[in-house]
Write a structure and sequence with these properties.
Layout lengths: L4 E5 L10 H14 L7 E3 L9 H4 L5 E8 L8 E8 L2 E2 L14 H11 L6 E8 L11 H22 L13 E3 L7 H4 L7
Parallel strand pairs: 1-2, 1-3, 3-6, 4-7
Antiparallel strand pairs: 4-5, 4-6
Helix pairs in contact: 1-4
Length: about 200
């Protein structure tokens, strides 16, 4: 039996495109119910802050998170990043978070591992937002990308569940891979990094 894969969306539906991650996770769960998923998933309750993930992924071997991003790419662009592989954090903490949340999923994962919680495999599917101001509803390019983001999330969940490497994935047009750098720039310059 494949390991449990938790799927969670992060966001605030009262801040326009910030709610995209929530809708992507909901759509992925709908596709799974319809039998269109490569693996069974467990949909976590909506998450407003990455630290809330600590309680969402208990008992899971793997998790895939959907979140809105602010990278400067075109609105609606999808991205993928490994946060953890085999229990080792792949992401470097930075002061500029690639998601719309200040702390970020990588920070939450490091806290989780420090207290003995958290999945061994963790990936994030991002959907580039345009408008993060107060208000309801997604902008048109982000709303149009939600179905493709849900399919990508399920594809990643299937690969994560089967521990298949994604190093050679062709994500297709409109996707870009935002894998974290292998070295920490602070450590590369010989500066001390406090953990």
């Amino acid at each position: 039996m494949p390991p449990l894969v938790v799927v969670a969306g992060i966001g605030n539906p009262m801040r326009h495109d910030d709610g995209a991650g929530l809708l992507v996770a909901e759509r992925a769960a709908e596709l799974e119910v319809q039998g269109q998923a490569p693996v069974a998933i467990a949909l976590a309750p909506p998450v407003g802050d990455p630290l809330d993930l600590l309680w969402s992924w208990d008992g899971a071997e793997a998790a895939v998170i959907a979140d809105a991003t602010r990278s400067g790419s075109a609105p609606g662009t999808l991205s993928f990043a490994w946060i953890a592989r085999d229990g080792e954090c792949q992401a470097v903490l930075s002061t500029k978070a690639p998601t719309s949340h200040g702390f970020g999923v990588a920070g939450a994962y490091r806290v989780a591992r420090a207290v003995g919680r958290g999945p061994r495999q963790l990936a994030v599917v991002g959907i580039e937002g345009l408008d993060f101001s107060q208000g309801e509803g997604l902008t048109a390019p982000v709303a149009a990308a939600v179905p493709a983001a849900a399919r990508l999330l399920l594809h990643v969940a299937g690969r994560v569940a089967n521990h298949t490497s994604t190093e050679r994935w062709h994500l297709g047009q409109g996707f870009h891979d935002v894998r974290a750098p292998r070295t920490d720039p602070m450590e590369a310059r010989g500066r001390k990094k406090y953990r």
